[in-house]
Design brief:
This protein is mostly helical. It has 3 helices and 4 strands. The protein has one domain (10-110). The chain has helices at residues 18-32, 44-56, 70-78; strands spanning 10-11, 64-65, 84-85, 109-110. This is Peptidoglycan binding-like domain-containing protein.
Length: 111
């Protein structure tokens, strides 16, 4: 089962919550076979890869990724099975960086 959700919109002139940007960076790395730094920052390289993905998939003028966007739906469909996408939003003192996995009571999604 593929359950991946963003909290906010990622992209040009978007909210760009760092965990969501990191998730998009991980997905872009997987499906484009890139080595983009997963830092949660929507910078030039992330923007270029997002626009490349959209162009390669016939998605024009979107420039964003949201749960309802054509881009996000296509990204999730394109992911190979067995890819870990960490989703950790700690409300306590535990600090988890993008790309780390936790094995506590917090959520982790296996794709």
């Amino acid at each position: 089962m593929r359950v991946i959700k963003l909290r906010k919109t990622v992209g040009v002139d978007a909210t760009n919550f760092y965990m969501d940007v990191g998730m998009v960076q991980i997905i872009l790395n997987e499906i484009l076979n890139e080595n983009l730094t997963v830092d949660g920052v929507f910078g030039i390289k992330t923007q270029e890869l997002l626009l490349e993905f959209q162009k390669n998939n016939g998605i024009y003028n979107e420039k964003i990724v949201s749960n309802q966007s054509s881009t996000f739906k296509k990204m999730v469909e394109s992911l190979p099975l067995g890819v870990f996408i960490p989703t950790h939003y700690s409300h306590g003192p535990l600090r988890v960086d993008i790309g780390q996995l936790t094995f506590d009571s917090e959520e982790m999604i296996f794709i």
